[in-house]
Amino acid sequence: MKKRITADAVRQYAAASRDTAAIHLNAEAAAKAGYERPIAHGMYIMGLAQSLYLAEHQALWIHDYSMKFLKPLFIDTMASFDFEACEDTIHVTVTTETGEVIALGSFSVKESF
């Protein structure tokens, strides 16, 4: 599944989570931190992966999750969320449009009630 990471979505996440760190919202602050442009929150990426998966698998419930971030995911990037099932564990890989792997994770699922 592909999803464009927009500045508006990151601003909404920052407001909801109260994580208003400037590297997520301000190009100048991101540049001072060594990034080419603002970056998405890790928790936003993780939550987005869960939401995208559950949108296609509505009878399941996620009860355990982990994700390792390898690189920052910049604002205004098309991200691919690829899922691979192995019994009740779902492995997720997040990549950019250039094929860079941004994050690797997994979560356990079970049937919802």
TrEMBL record:
UniProt GO molecular function: (3R)-hydroxyacyl-[acyl-carrier-protein] dehydratase activity
Cross-referenced Pfam families: MaoC_dehydratas (PF01575)
Entry superkingdom: Bacteria
Stretches assigned to the MaoC-like domain: 4-91
Single GO biological process annotation from the record: fatty acid biosynthetic process
UniProt-listed InterPro entries: HotDog_dom_sf, MaoC-like_dom, UPF0336/Enoyl-CoA_hydratase
Stored PANTHER family: HYDROXYACYL-THIOESTER DEHYDRATASE TYPE 2, MITOCHONDRIAL, HYDROXYACYL-THIOESTER DEHYDRATASE TYPE 2, MITOCHONDRIAL-RELATED
Stated name of the protein: MaoC family dehydratase
